[in-house]
Structures are given as C-alpha cells and as structure tokens.
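Task: complex structure prediction.
Instruction: return structure tokens for all chains below.
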Amino acid sequence: MPSSQDNKPTNRSRRRFLADTLRSAVGVGLVSMTLGVYQRQAIALPSTAIRPPGAGDEEQFQGACIRCGLCVRDCPFDTLKLAELGDAVALGTPYFTARDVPCEMCDDIPCIKACPTSALDHDLTDIDKSRMGLAVVVDQEACIAFKGLRCEVCFNVCPIRSKAISLNYQHNERSGKHALFIPVVHSDACTGCGKCEKACILDEAAIKVFPIALAKGVLGQHYRLGWEQKKQAGESLVSPDVPHEYNLPEGMRYDHAGEGLIQEQATAPENLAPPFSDNPLDTLNRKGGL
Amino acid sequence: MEKGQFPGAEAVKVNGWFKANRFLLLRRVSQVSLLALFLAGPWLGYWIVKGNMASSLTLDVLPLTDPLVFLQAILTGNPPVQAGIIGAAVVFIFYFLVGGRVYCSWVCPINIITDTANWLRRKLKLKGGTTFSRQSRYWLLLAILILALLTGNIVWELVNPVSMVYRGLIFGMGMAWGIVIAIFLLDLLVAHNAWCGHLCPVGAFYSLIGKFSVLRISAVNRQACDDCLDCFAVCPESRVIKPALKGADQKIGPVILSGQCNNCARCIDVCAKDVFSFSTRFSNQLPESKESSNQREVMS
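Output:
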C-alpha cells in the first residue's frame, strides 16, 4: 500500500521530533531546577563581603546588577572588585572586603554614577546617607579598650567622627581609679565604609563591618517606650505623674541623681534634734512605713 | 571536495591561502581586537573602553549594554536607567543591521574555543558522539527568562560561560578556566557543535534578532555550485545553507534568511567556485531568467 509506505517516514520523524523535544524539555527542566536552587544559595552574601554604596538588599541587588564592572572601573581607590568563579560572592557582582581596602566615601560617589542599572541607587547623592553595612564591636574580650587601655583608633578614623562611633566612658573596676573608653557604634550615622575595621590594631579586627541584614536588630513594632511617649505627649500618659517619695525621717530629702541625702533645715546639724528618738518604742510606734 | 581532502583545500588551491581564509582571519582580528580594547585599560592604562560585554562605556560617551542581560534585569522587576536603555538599544540596532549572530562569530570569545574544537574534530576525524536537538537553546533561553521572572535574580549570569570568560579575562578568571576547558571538551568529544549550536541561550537570543536582520549571506552564484560540500562541512549551522543553495527549483531565493546563520562567512572562504557573498535580505529576488538560462548552459 502506498499510503502505509508514505506514513512510515512521517511516523518515524514525528516520533523523533517528539523524543527530541521531550529530551530537550527534560534536560532544560533539570538545568533550570539546579539553577533555581543554586540561585537561593547565591543570594546568601558572606558576612565579610560589603556591597558598594547605594546597593539595596541582596535579592534586589542581584536582580538588578548585570555584572559589568563599571563601578569597579570608576572606583578611584581600587576598593571594589568583581567576584570570580569560586568566590563565595555571587559570580561577577561587585563587593569589597573592609579589612583589605575600605570604602573612602567619595563625595561624588563615582561608582553609583557609573552604574548602568538600578543596582546602585542613583537617587543617593549624599555618601553620608549610604548604608553599605554596619560596624559592630564583635569581640569585647579582645578589644583593648575593654581592658582599660587607650586606643580609640576606630573612633578617630571614622569619617563621621563621634557620630557613627562614640566613646562611652565607664568606670575601670580593675584599677578602681581609671576610665574605660568604650567604642559604641550608632546605626543612624554609620555608613559601613569599613575604615574602622581596616584600622583596628588587633591581628584580627575586634570591630567588623557586616551587611546590615546581619548586623542590625529590629525592635518589635508594638514596643512603646514610656519616656519617649511622655516627651511626645508633653506629659505623662500614666496620670498623675507622681514623683517618687522616699520614706525618710522628717526634715530629710533625697536627691536621686544629685546631692544625695539633704537636710532641709538650714540650721547646723548639731542643733537639730536627732532623727531618732532616744526611746526605741517611739520608733517602733511611728506612723507610716519603716 | 576530493575524497579525504580537508574542507577548503580546493579553495586554497584556486584562490590562494589568504583569500581562502580571509573572513576567518578577519573574525579573529575582530574578536581579539575587541578584547584588546577592553584590556588596554586595565593592562596599559589606555581607557578607551570600560566595563565588559554585559555593559560598557566607550570614550566616556557611548554606553553599550547586552540586550539579553538587560532584558533579564527588567524581568526581575528592577527599573532600567537611561544609560542602560540607550546602551541596549544601540546594541540591538547594531545587530539588527549586521546580523544577530554576528555577535557569536565576530565578537564572542567562546567562538574561538568552539571553532578550535570543531577544527580539531575534523582534523582527527572524530565522528558521532551524543546528538540532541538544536532547539534546546531556545528552551534554555525561555527557561532563563522565566527564572529571572520567578526568582527576581539574573540567574543565568551566575553560570553564563560567555559573559564569565569575557569578564574573567578583563577582571580576573578565578576558576573560569575550568569552564573554558569544559566547553572545549564538550564540543570536541561529547557532541558536534554542542555549545554554540545546541545549548547557548545567548546565541539563541541573537538568532531571534537575526531572523529579521539586514546583512545576510547569499548563495548568489549558486548555479556555479559543484556539490563539493565544503560549505556544509565548515558551516556551524549547516542546515541553513541548503534552502538557499539548492532551492532554485523550489523557487527559494538565494539569500540565507535563517537567524541561526551567524554570518561567519566561512562558506565564502572555503568555496572554490565563489558561490557565496555578503548581501542583504532585500536582494532575495529570484533572477529567474538568468538562472535558468545558466542552468541550461551547464546542462548543455
């Protein structure tokens, strides 16, 4: 039959076409699955890798960055580099390692200007408002300020001096007469440039810059801080605002944050009646609390 | 082609070695000098071009952006910026004019690797290997676009060998040499033309531009063909030749219109009869009378 003879090659080619298509589809499906899983790992930024200024969160950044390296080229300090195959950072994306070369925080932010995508936020024009990461004093045991030694190098190299890192004076219990100059980082000013980490005098820095997502805690939205609510309202919201009363002998006052125990009468102490009666029974029978 | 003769040997005999390799040499010059432009900055301090093939800035004026990576970035939901839009438009228009897959044969660094693998395959007479559909690249192209859309990440750029090698040469290879070797071995041993002809979604994307692009290769002198098959042997997409070269009887014009043709012009090089030449898609008319008269002459 001529018809069946004609059909044979058609059937064979159709079968081959279907098999080819199926093979391609299955192969590509498997590759896509693998890529999808790999992608989940690739958006996990290592804690030492800091993105250039203007980069959003990691997911947004990797979606927008086309890995052209123009930011790297326009960085005048060779701070930025592109991740190579085998690095822990997503392939081809720009980052810097603060301990090697920190960001010098150029006023004109050339890296953002060079970016041909929205990976770096072109609306960011004030480098002090950039949030590349956040410095954290990670090791209070190793930081020599906590041992009572004078250092303050991180405080002094900070480009936003005394705002991003301030010194908190604390009593040195060991010597009993000195102060500890404790560095404290403030997230409302720290840009994450990494100069503190670079400058830390320890063999392994005690202050480190981490991506914000790793470094920053977030207070629950339902928290209301009484003193701030009071400042906002201009008066205590728990009425009435009763000043704390100390149960003291008559003629005595106590100033909590200032002078301490105060005798109200201006008379000399030796002329005053003693606060306690000679008769112990009077004290026991006194009205009010102890 | 005489039996056992290497494809192109006849053309060398007739036209001389230089003419029989002129477009191959030009392509290598194009590929190497483009790379040299990118390397002149970091290596020698002459900043003519900055960046890499994904996006670059020439002489601090002209932005160029790879339209495929641009498209993926848009699919992730991130708004484009002006430099990127202009750059992608310029590149798109350029390839629309000169042929989409001109990127593959005149620019892409991987092409040198796969061409070498294919040449060695012919030299060593390696046959066979796995076969799979040449349509796989379109599936892969679709997959990477969907992945960008679903994950919000330019997933393909995590593994893309094309951009990886180019970026690597300019910014640092890391372990990307392994990918180069893998693709070379894949093309040499696993399947003929496996990467560029079957898998690469970048080439697939450019072939879609090439479907409509202006500059084309035409078998304009097809009545002179002596069926030596040299062009089929060297063509990385040999199916695209047949309709143009042998379609006179079916009233098919001489211009190779398939977007998969990458305008490498190796067919022009190796043809001893000068059948092929560069042309445009608009000169695809059938020179009926002339051709049929020529055929009559050949027959008589």
